[in-house]
Predict the structure.
Amino acid sequence: MNTLAQLLLQDGNQQQLVSCISGVHFRQFLPSSAEHKFSVVVSAYMLMEQPSPADRLQLLHDLWTMTDNYLLLVETGTGAGFNLINEAKEFILQNSQRQSEQFLPGHVFAPCPHDKSCPKLREKNQPCLTESVLRNVDFTSQKLSEQKSKHARYSYVILKKGPRAQDTEWPRVLHPIKSDRHVHVHMCLPCGNLQHVVITKGKFDKHLYGCAGHVEQGDRLPVSLSQLTTTTSSTEQQPDTSISATSDNDFDNVNSNRRQ
C-alpha cells in the first residue's frame, strides 16, 4: 500500500526521487528523535500488530508526540479493531487532561462529536463501525453500474490537538433511512447520547429536510440539539425519538436492498 501511494506521488515514475507533493514521507520505522513534528500522522492497522499492550500504548504515545495537528488511526471493522481504537482514544484523551509538555491536550475530531465514551457501545453493546463502498477498476466495462462493488467496514478515529471548537457542535449521522416523505436519522449527539429523529417536510424546516435527504453514514447534520428540540416540541404530533424504535435488523434489510 505504501509503495502504491508513493508511486502515485511520483507520477508513476519510479526513477523520480522527489514526489509531486512536498512534505510527504513514508516511514517503516518511527523517527529516532521526538523533535520531528508532522501536520498529519496516519497509522493504519498497526495497533493490532503490537506484541503487548505496553508496546501498543508506547506506540500511541510516540505517534501523539510527533503529531502537530491531526492523528488518524485506522483498524479493521471488527469488534477487536473497534476495541483497539476505543482504547487509543481513551488513552490519549486521559493523558491529554494532564497537559504536560510531552503530552499536549487534544480532542476527537471525527467521527465522534464529543470526547465521552461511545454511546453505541454503552447503550447497545455494539461497536461503532464505518462502511464504505469499494469498486474494482474494470477497464473492459464502460458503465459504472456494471462494475463490481463490495462493502468494506473499518474502525477509525481522528484526534486533533488543541481545544474543541464550540461553534460546530453538530450531531454525527449513524444510520439514515430514507423514504419518499420522511427520513429516519439515528445520530450521535455532542452531549454523548444517541437519538432517533423522524424528519418530515411538513414538521421541520425545509433546509433541514433537504439536508437530511442527502446525508450518509458519517456525515454531520447541520443542526443544533436546541433547534431540533424546539422544532420537535412545536409540532402537534411529535416524532418518535427513541433509539429502540428501529432495530438493527431493519438497518440490515435496508442496506441489503440498496446493494441489490
In short: Residues 175 and 186 are 5 Å apart (CA to CA).
